[in-house]
Amino acid sequence: MEFVTYEQDGYVGIITINRPKALNALNSAVLEELDATFKAVDLDTTRCLILTGAGEKSFVAGADIGEMSTLTKAEGEAFGKKGNDVFRYIETFPIPVIAAVNGFALGGGCEISMSCDIRICSENAIFGQPEVGLGITPGFGGTQRLARLVGAGMAKQLIYTARNIKADEAYRIGLVNAVYPLEELLPAAKKMAAGIAANAPIAVRNCKKAINDGLQVDMDQAIVIEEKLFGDCFETEDQKAGMGNFLEKDKEKKLKVVPFQNK
Ligand code: DAK
Questions:
Q1: CB contact at 8 A, 28 and 62
Q2: Nearest in space to 198 (alpha carbons), one of 7, 10, 8
Q3: Which of 7, 69, 67 is nearest to 32 (CA)?
Q4: Which of 5, 102, 143, 168 is the most buried (most CB within 10 A)?
């Protein structure tokens, strides 16, 4: 891979977008490598992923403006689909993905962070959807995910004005969960990921699926989705071990490691 690196740290996988000369902007090659990297993750040995950008200045400075500038309508749609397919794959990936946003997260950069489950960022992070200033709409799900995360009114303001916001404002509006000094960001992401990885893996996956799928439907259907995924947990060794440890008052016992059971 030229633009994406993968590192395994225990149960945690760290995916780094590494195209520093363009501030990690997403061109077709980066999108293809991201797709291949996510598809290669070993789900039997990985319980949580971190997505970050190389360097100290930028997470992802957007889709590659140079590559997009000459696109025809058909090519623009194809480029949008390539990005959207990868982002949706991340969003529905079976295990949680934490975006560790280490600088600029503009346009497609903000959008890829929003396809992750959780966003934390460094103090120098800048978020924004500058597309209307470039004569386009957000094309990698920005109009949809930003509105769902921060509410329609705030999303409309940010998208219509194309105004960038700093880390503290991103935190205030709920776009990120926490802000850290740059050097503490990755350690914090790893600590959070390790905390997630220490819990019952199938239960964590079922929580992600329940939240994601439930948000697509009305509450009556959402509750049924939750019931089904809750019920599935009672077929796992983790449920027996987890509840057994509690009842035996054995807090030292770790949950049994159970590979993903593909249902
Ligand atoms: N694309 C390509 N190259 C980029 C880039 C980008 N988005 N952002 C930065 N670079 C490159 C710069 O061209 C420069 O390259 P050289 O000139 O050195 O070769 C290098 O990275 C360093 O950038 P700067 O010299 O500009 O660095 P500064 O610190 O001065 O400024 C900046 C940093 C992030 C404020 C600035 O680079 C900037 O404004 N970048 C553009 C940010 C932006 O507008 N991002 C949103 C892109 S639009 C769709 C699919 C997707 C999308 C839309 C539609 N469909 C097909 C439906 C998504 C759109 C976007 O993401």
A1: no
A2: 10
A3: 67
A4: 102
Structure tokens at 45: 């040995």
| Beta carbons within 10 angstroms of residue 251's beta carbon | 7
Q: Record the tokens describing residue 134, joined without a space.
A: 């470039």
What distance in Å separates the CA atoms of residue 120 and residue 232, rounded to the nearest whole number?
A: 31
Contact assessment for residue 3 and residue 29, using Cβ atoms and an 8 Å cutoff: yes
pLDDT tens digits for 107-123?
A: 999 999 999 999 999 99
Average pLDDT, the chain: 94
Instruction: Reply yes or no on whether 32 is catalytic.
Output: no
Residue 138 and residue 183 in contact, taking contact as beta carbons nearer than 8 Å: no
The CA R_g of the chain, rounded to the nearest whole Å, is: 19
Does the active-site annotation cover 77?
A: no
pLDDT tens digits along 233-259: 999 999 998 898 888 887 666 555 554
Pocket test for ligand 1, best of 26, 65, 113, 132 (most atoms within 8 A of CB): 65
Q: Is the Cβ atom of 103 under 6 angstroms away from ligand 1? A: no
Minimum CA distance residue for ligand 1 atom 34: 61
Q: Say what the pTM is.
A: 0.95
Q: What tokens appear for 217 in the block?
A: 């439907």
Give me the phi and psi of 229, to 5 degrees please.
Answer: -70, -35
Measured from the CB, is residue 130 less than 6 Å from ligand 1?
yes
Distance of CA 144 to the CA centre of its chain: 15
The SS3 of residue 125 is: coil
Amino acid at 254: K
Q: Quick check: CB of 128 below 6 Å from ligand 1?
A: no
